[in-house]
Amino acid sequence: MDAWAATYTVHAVYPPVAPAGSPYPGGAPAQRRGRAAIAGALRAAVAKRAGSAVVRRYWLDMLVVDPAPDGALRARFAAFNVETPAGGRPAIHNSTTGEDLLVPAPGGWLVATRRITHDAVS
């Protein structure tokens, strides 16, 4: 989890976008600001699902990356969240679009902002 969180800048922002009634009970998680908060939210989500016997996978597609005038990159993608219960069939839990702002960093790129919008909300 820390390796995934390390792909974000120290001050990254991951804002909520799903209201009550969305696939998230009670709405989306609160805004996560900073790499440590993003890692903590991931740990909490994994702990919440521990023992559920459901495998969750994400299918990312339709990636478009455009350079920004300041040297950053703007990336857009579509994603499916597929859940498979033990012994069951996979099913699409939700479909989303994502928008990332990537900034150059030593050795590659880091996510400065990630916005995920659920299709039911857009």
Q: Ends: how far apart? A: 29 Å
The secondary-structure class comes to: alpha+beta
Average pLDDT rating: 85
Provide the low-confidence segments as ranges.
Answer: none
Tally of alpha and pi helices: 2
Using the CA coordinates, give the radius of gyration.
Answer: 15 Å
Indicate the proportion of strand residues. over 45%
| Helix and strand element order | HEEHEEEE
Strand segment tally: 6
* Strand adjacency order, main sheet: 2-1-6-5-4-3
Largest sheet: 6 strands, mixed
Task: Note down, in words, how this protein is organized.
This protein is of the alpha+beta class and 122 residues long. The chain is 16% helix and 51% strand. The protein is built from two helices and six strands. A six-stranded mixed β-sheet has the order 2-1-6-5-4-3, covered by helices on one side.
List the helices and strands and how they pair.
Blueprint: H1 2-5, E1 8-14, E2 32-33, H2 35-49, E3 54-67, E4 73-85, E5 91-105, E6 108-118
Parallel strand pairs: 1-6
Antiparallel strand pairs: 1-2, 3-4, 4-5, 5-6
At a glance:
The chain is of the alpha+beta class and 122 residues long. The chain is 16% helix and 51% strand. The mean pLDDT is 85.
